[in-house]
Design brief:
Blueprint (H helix, E strand, L loop, with lengths): L1 H12 L16 H32 L17 E8 L13 E6 L3 E8 L20 H25 L3 H21 L2 E3 L4 E3 L8 H11 L26 H9 L10 H16 L2 H18 L3 H24 L24 H26 L7 H17 L5 H15 L8 H15 L1 H11 L1 H27 L3 H41 L21
Antiparallel strand pairs: 1-3, 2-3, 4-5
């Protein structure tokens, strides 16, 4: 029933026009309203499908005109068979032996009616038969009108049902509270002599729990997390960067003993998105879209976090677009004040490849450095430090710097020795440690591939910038080739071209920006997966008056 309530609420909330909400009603029948809403949704879908079908049939029959099939007796048992013959095959009609008549012609086809007792053979006419159905157009128009009226009635009923949204929300909250209470009761010890409950509490709330226990005269035992425990993970972020936590929740929750990557992902995702969008003008378009949806996003805490993340994406993208000197694919003249802010050239392959690889190295180094800090004071911290040394040594080897081979060797030795830090109590433990170290060294090729994977930032940014320039050039060529009409073509190419490029750039920025964070970065920074902490709390906070 809870699932049906959610479906009904989603359907009613999506209604464009809503009625005044009823705060309370002693005769409110929750189940009846849910069933009416879902039945209305089903009828709406059926009616919309029927209307679409009727309109398609009317459009298909339009070339044949308005006609009624005569009774078979009036045609001596003959029937009418219809064919749409393209003009380039019209000459073959001379070879048709059956009686036929052209009833209509347009710029593509000739519409032919053939008289025959039986359906003509497949090769009797140049094309297969057209199925027009037996219902004439005038009757289809009547059916369509009735369907539209019924759809209007369903729309009015849906709007009337929206007055119960508030009460449906309250009933759903009460049902969810009852379900959670039942689940919690299954985890308690309840006998005649004692009632006991055990659960996880955030450290910041432990004092509140102690105070409650004192007020209620309850016995409280709070214990720290043991090595064998698997507590849930609570991400406690500053709301200004909590959009990164929403990404983490969407992909993979880190384990309790891991670290919170939300803030790193917040800023790195914004930077990657900016490099792929690579245009200050597109950043302003994104700002307009964000402001348009901002009122809807402000309705929930998650929406507010996504909104803040969106503003960060806009800010990073605009700043990077200014540094790249790209404004809807247009580069400012060298003497203009905008050109003085241009520090990057997306067409300079060497510069952009070095920038992308440098960002990739920095991203993976941050992941390993954070893991090392998380394991500070223990031997396990030396393995991620070894990877940092190995990554930097790879750069030294690429540029032919002295000491690169030595640094690489030392780094990989650290990885081999300290990846598996289990105590050695028997020969088998030593063998397992050696095996763990050797297995960790297989990530050398992955490290190389992951760093190169960041070249997608350069490639996608170059593609976005190149398409913008191409559309600008096409628009300019059209304006020059067709005086007068060229102005319209110029505007059309600019609008359609940049809209398409903007959508592709945004999709690429989201998909690949997340991929670099949640695949490459996660592999080096997050070692285990956890489950989110969900506080046991009452959802329905308003008084119930049913």
């Amino acid at each position: 029933m809870a699932g049906d309530t959610r479906k009904a609420l989603a359907y009613l909330l999506d209604c464009p026009a809503k009625r005044h909400q009823v705060p309370s009603d002693p005769d409110f029948d929750h189940q009846a309203i849910v069933e009416r809403a879902l039945e209305n949704q089903r009828r709406m879908r059926d009616l919309e499908d029927s209307i679409d079908f009727a309109r398609r049939r009317l459009k298909d029959l339009e070339p044949w005109g308005d006609f009624d099939f005569p009774p078979l007796e009036s045609l001596a048992g003959h029937r009418l068979w219809f064919y749409e013959v393209p003009h380039y095959r019209a000459r073959q009609l001379a070879e048709v032996e059956l009686p036929w008549q052209e009833v209509h012609r347009d710029n593509r086809n000739r519409y032919i009616a053939v008289i025959s007792r039986e359906e003509p053979a497949m090769d009797a006419l140049p094309v297969p038969r057209t199925h027009t159905g037996s219902v004439p157009r005038w009757r289809l128009r009547e059916q369509l009108q009735r369907l539209v009226v019924r759809l209007d009635e369903c729309t009015a009923e849906r709007e009337a049902l929206t007055r119960w949204i508030h009460l449906l929300h309250r009933h759903q909250a009460r049902a969810e509270d009852a379900t959670r209470l039942t689940q919690a009761q299954q985890l308690t010890r309840d006998t005649d002599a004692i009632f006991a409950v055990q659960g996880w509490v955030p450290e910041a709330a432990i004092e509140d729990v102690r105070r409650l226990a004192e007020q209620q005269g309850l016995a409280l035992l709070d214990e720290p997390v043991g090595p064998e425990d698997q507590p849930p993970t609570l991400l406690d972020n500053d709301e200004r960067t909590a959009g990164g936590a929403e990404i983490v929740h969407f992909y993979q929750m880190p384990g309790y003993r891991s670290w919170d990557p939300s803030r790193v992902i917040f800023f790195s995702f914004a930077a990657f998105f900016a490099m792929i969008l690579a245009d200050a003008g597109y950043a302003l378009l994104l700002l307009g879209a964000l402001l348009f949806f901002s009122p809807r996003l402000k309705r929930s805490r998650t929406g507010l976090r996504v909104r803040t993340l969106g503003f960060a994406l806009v800010g990073f993208a605009f700043a990077y677009g200014v540094l790249a000197g790209s404004y809807f694919g247009w580069s400012p003249p060298p003497e203009s004040w905008l050109s003085h802010s241009r520090l990057l050239d997306v067409n300079d392959f060497g510069q952009m490849m070095q920038l992308a690889i440098g960002i990739g190295l920095a991203h993976l180094i941050v992941a390993n450095a954070t893991v090392a800090w998380h394991h500070r004071g223990r031997a396990a911290m030396l393995a991620p430090l070894g990877w940092i040394v190995a990554l930097l040594a790879g750069v030294m080897l690429f540029y032919g710097m002295t000491g690169g081979a030595v640094a690489m060797t030392l780094g990989l030795i650290g990885v081999f020795v300290f990846t598996d830090t289990r105590p050695i109590r028997e020969p088998l433990d030593l063998l397992k440690r050696v095996g763990g170290g050797l297995y960790a060294l297989t990530d050398v090729t992955r490290a190389f591939g992951d760093v190169l994977s960041y070249l997608r930032l350069f490639a996608l940014g170059l593609a976005s910038a190149s398409l913008a320039v191409t559309f600008n050039q096409l628009a300019a060529d059209a304006a020059a080739a067709f005086p007068g009409l060229g102005i319209l073509l110029n505007a059309l190419i600019l609008i359609v071209g940049h809209a398409l490029n903007f959508v592709l750039a945004v999709v690429s920025g989201v998909v690949h920006g997340l991929r670099l964070n949640l695949i490459e970065f996660y592999h080096w920074g997050i070692s285990d997966e956890g489950y989110p902490f969900t506080a046991f709390a009452k959802t329905e906070t308003t008084p119930w008056s049913n």
